[in-house]
Amino acid sequence: METNFKSIALVGKYSSSSVSSSILRLAEFLEQRGHDVWTTVHTADNCQIRSIKTAPLVELADRMDLVIVIGGDGTLLNVARVLADHPVPMIGVNQGRLGFLADVSVDTMLTTLDEMLAGQYVAEDRIMLECHLERHGDLFDAGYAFNDVVVSKGSTGRLIEFEVYIDDKFVYSQRADGLVLATPTGSTAYALSAGGPILHPTLEAFVLTPVSAHTLSARPIAVNSRSEIEINLIHAVDARVHFDGQRHQDLVIGDRVVVRRAKNTIRLLHHSEHNYYDTLREKLHWGEKL
């Protein structure tokens, strides 16, 4: 069964020309299949591509039926935040290192995508985070995160102190290097390294994982994704909040970080034979036989 993905945008790894040949191969393949192929202005400039129609990503988001991201998980995270307000599905082609989100191998992408575009795919809707930063009661910044929002110490390396509230109920105060608030997608990223649990990507939950807390009793906690999380900075020489580890904002004492579930989800498409647990074993060496 052929799909209705008539118009397809190709987005390459940011500030890198390493994906140029892959994009050109993929564009030629898609045009031969009868698709209307575009790429972003940024991708075309970085890869010196002149043979594909271009437009800014935010403009393509409303006109495309599908976005194919060529690069790695970091590239897909970046694109996901831009597309947060646009319900266009994405496929990730891995030309990076890990390939947790970008799970189509660049070596087999033409065969795999041919099958997916013929209908052999499954769709997975994943939740995102929306974060508001408040200072003296006023909003001074906001952003989305697909993996995690991290409140952490800054360049001086000294502990920070903060309070956490969930749905206006006090949870705890803590001195630590920071706190990772992750989606199920982000539970296999920084949160996992900090000792958090793995959440299946379709769960409607967040996980709060302390980073190097100055206590013997700090434990991660999973909460319903409809919860509103508030983090108040009590003491810090310098502190920051990070969005997917790709954008950050400095914080000062008294700042309030409010995180809630974003209104829209990100729709990822996988090959119909995709198995999340295979990915855990392959990428994280999880559950291997001894």
Net shape: globular
End-to-end distance: 42 Å
- Output the helix-strand order: EHEHEHEHEEHEEEEEEHEEEEEEH
Helix content: 10-25%
Largest sheet: 6 strands, parallel
CATH superfamily of the largest domain: Probable inorganic polyphosphate/atp-NAD kinase, domain 2
- CATH class value of the largest domain: Mainly Beta
Instruction: Give me the CATH architecture of the largest domain, please.
Output: Sandwich
Descriptive account of the structure:
The protein is an alpha/beta fold and 290 residues long. The protein has 2 domains: 7-119, Rossmann fold; 128-263, Tumour Suppressor Smad4 (Sandwich). The protein is 19% helix and 41% strand. The protein contains 7 helices and 18 strands. The chain has helices at 20-32, 41-47, 57-60, 73-82, 109-117, 190-193, 276-284; strands at 7-12, 36-40, 53-55, 66-71, 90-94, 104-105, 121-135, 138-145, 148-153, 160-166, 169-176, 178-182, 205-211, 221-224, 229-235, 239-243, 247-251, 256-271. The strands form 3 sheets. The chain has a 6-stranded parallel sheet with strand order 3-2-1-4-5-6, with helices on both faces. The model has no long low-confidence stretch (mean pLDDT 93).
Short description:
The chain has 290 residues and is α/β, with parallel strands linked by helices. Helices cover 19% and strands 41% of the residues. The chain is globular.
